[in-house]
Amino acid sequence: GLLLFVLPGIYLALAYAFSVLFVIREGLGPWQAMEESRRIITAHFMDYLVFAVLALIVNVVAAIPFGLGLFVSIPVTLAAQYALFVELRHAEREGDDFAATSELAQ
């Protein structure tokens, strides 16, 4: 029964990850930012899930040496999340598929 609450919670945490970026960068209100974040991440859910898992692994490994590696890994992770946000927004505005326009896919 607990799994029925955990899985939707993980999905919503991932789906609303860009909310703050929408508020700051595009000046949306909180509810509209949450909806836009959910919409864009749902459209590219597997891409973002892979990113989130890799970011989690990097941050867990960085926490091993008394948490000192987090001083580097957290800013790098946040910068990577911002870069992914910008790439997804650009691909959305151009009408392209993210996987086809990503430099990593080439």
Structure description:
By secondary structure, the protein is mostly helical. The chain contains six helices and no strands. The mean pLDDT is 90.
List the helices and strands and how they pair.
Elements: H1 3-15, H2 19-26, H3 30-43, H4 45-63, H5 70-94, H6 98-101
Helix pairs in contact: 2-3, 4-5
Structural class: mainly alpha
H/E order of the elements? HHHHHH
SS element count, helices = 6
Low-confidence stretches: none
- How much helicity do the residues have? over 70%
Radius of gyration: 15 Å
Termini separation: 43 Å
Average pLDDT taken over every residue: 90
Q: What portion of the residues fall into strands of 2 or more residues?
A: under 5%
Which outline best applies?
globular
Tally the beta strands.
Answer: 0
Could you give a short description of this structure?
This protein is mainly α. It is 78% helix and 0% strand. The chain is globular, with a radius of gyration of 15 Å.
Keywords, separated by commas or semicolons:
0% strand, single chain, mainly alpha, 106 residues
